[in-house]
Amino acid sequence: MAAGMLRAAVVQVNAGPEIAPNLEAAGTLVRRAREAGAELVCLPENVALMVQGRDRILPLAKPEGEHPGVPFFQDLARETGAWLMTGSLQCLLEDGRVANRAFVVDPAGGIVARYDKIHMFDVDLAGGESYRESATYRPGTRAVVAPTPWGGLGMSICYDVRFAYLYRALAKAGASIITVPSAFTVPTGRAHWHVLLRARAIETGCYVLAPAQTGVHDGGRGTYGHALIISPWGEVLADAGEEPGFIIADLDLSKVAEARRMVPSLTHDRGFEGP
């Protein structure tokens, strides 16, 4: 079980359609968070590119080995001495689809873990917004817990938050911290963002770090913001509101074991027959 203290920062950005300025803006916030003492800094989904639709994404997606975001975050980790959860990058795959891929990078610039978003956001919202991630992205097939000095870091991305079984699996595999980099829509964010993230923390007894996109992006798409840091008891320790920036909190990792002792639901699974 993880123990000790960790100062963690969660970044909120308003990314646009050009990779270089998006990375520059993210890098500035990482450096500021590090100056504030953050040892782990987490970035949002689509941190380097926020455009919509297969015809917009595919020309800008790159194989992992050619994506400028990968060496950028490796160099940034080395420069700052921080651990980074990079948020997600659009990595082109051999079959012509794209992986929505997040990385954990250590202070030496080494890639400790990769995670491809498993659950695809294919929805039609009441206000007319429609999304078909599966038209562009290939779903991931593997849950990932990254080793860190503070214990296991469970990885997820945005729409994954609606699938509680993933988070239970991460906690049982050793996660003490779970990251949920996101680009939540405004309607779903208003209705569900806080409650879903708090529920995932409560169910698993994990700290939840949820970086976010915010504001209006290319094509008029809006994202909800409100990047969050949540305790294993479900308390909101920090909320970024609606402006780009970062939030920071000191995480007492002994609270993970404490929450799980008080409500040991991770040990209370029972088999049952279907309805």
From TrEMBL:
Q: Supply the alphabetized keyword list.
A: Hydrolase
| Top-level taxon | Bacteria
Q: Does the keyword Hydrolase apply?
A: yes
Would you indicate the residue range of the signal peptide?
A: none
CN hydrolase domain ranges (all copies)? 6-253
> Which GO MF terms are attached to this record?
hydrolase activity, acting on carbon-nitrogen (but not peptide) bonds, in linear amides
* PANTHER family registered for this protein in UniProt: DEAMINATED GLUTATHIONE AMIDASE, NITRILASE-RELATED
Protein name, as recorded: Carbon-nitrogen hydrolase family protein
Read off the lineage from the record: Bacteria, Pseudomonadati, Pseudomonadota, Alphaproteobacteria, Rhodospirillales
